[in-house]
Design brief:
7-stranded parallel β-sheet, 13 strands, alpha/beta, globular, Rossmann fold, single chain
Length: 291
């Protein structure tokens, strides 16, 4: 068996690839650029999801697709939404059309903050709705997994500002951690390996769920301030600095998974937040020993 991962060289994609290879499944990584990194046992396909010909050629030679490629960022995509529209919507439609044409199962990763009005959430959720339309009207089997706030090793520090690297790196340097808003926003943090397990099960299992979402989160409500304080506690340095909310991110938001949606995939053993943060800190510390 061979599975196509769009965005396979990205943060989540690399962990999905690890999960698949551990099961003895071949991986074809589809990306619009190739990094100078050697991943043993992984084939590479250089292409862009906005190019239907490239997408079609890749889908034709695999047994299933996990579609992760996308333009990320809330604040970062507001001033210029067009790239997010082209990649997140039109690129996803290319994946869905190719899966229909070749009769291949797929998984599409959506977002937990689907109700927020920023280019990232709007475009990802639009593609989510198209997936359900394809399933209902055109007979595809595209499972929709709403990934909550994934964190863990290999997550980039920038240019899109994600919570854990931008809390961990300042703390490692003994600097202040910047929190946008008052820190009461509730986030559902899911360790990236747990998210990868859910995505893989959503593709491989015969669950029959193609008319509603899987919420890939722990269901544990944690505030942004609590996450920052846990990072400081484990590292033993750092302080808090509060700044105004960023555009596209409403204050007091609650993004929390309904874990009951995961029942068709079997029991998921989630990594406790404290343990996940510990592993993540260790990874950044090994990467930046002089931080």
């Amino acid at each position: 068996m061979k599975i196509l991962i769009t965005g396979g060289r990205g943060f989540i994609g690399s962990h999905v690839a690890d999960n698949l290879r551990a099961r003895g499944i071949e991986v074809l990584s589809f990306d619009h650029h190739l990094l100078n990194v050697n991943f043993d046992g992984e084939d590479q396909f250089l292409g862009d999801v906005r190019d239907y010909t490239a997408v079609s050629e890749a889908v034709a030679v695999v047994d299933g697709v996990i579609h992760l490629a996308g333009i990320l960022g809330t604040q970062e995509t507001i001033k210029e939404p067009l790239p997010a529209v082209e990649t997140n919507i039109l690129g996803s439609l290319n994946i869905f059309k190719a899966c229909e044409h070749y009769g291949k199962k797929a998984v599409y990763i959506a977002v937990g903050n689907h109700w927020m009005n920023n280019s990232y959430s709007i475009t990802k959720t639009t593609a989510e709705r198209f997936a359900f339309m394809f399933n209902r009207e055109r007979g595809t089997k595209i499972a929709v997994v709403r990934g909550l706030n994934a964190y863990g090793p290999r997550q980039k520090i920038g240019p899109v500002r994600k919570i854990t690297p931008n809390f961990i790196m300042p703390a490692l340097k003994g600097e202040a951690i910047t929190i946008y808003g008052d820190g009461t926003q509730v986030m559902d943090m899911i360790y990236v390996e747990d998210l990868a397990e859910i995505l893989v099960r959503a593709l491989l299992l015969e669950h029959g769920v193609y008319d509603r979402v899987f919420d890939a989160g722990t269901g544990r409500p944690t505030t942004v301030k609590e996450i920052a304080e846990e990072v400081i506690r484990q590292i033993g340095s750092g302080s808090l600095n509060f700044a105004p909310m960023r555009p596209g991110e409403p204050s007091g938001s609650v993004v929390l998974a309904d874990t009951a949606t995961l029942a068709p995939l079997g029991e998921i053993k989630f990594t406790p937040l404290e343990e996940g943060i510990k592993r993540t800190i260790e990874w950044y510390r090994s990467l930046y020993p002089h931080a």
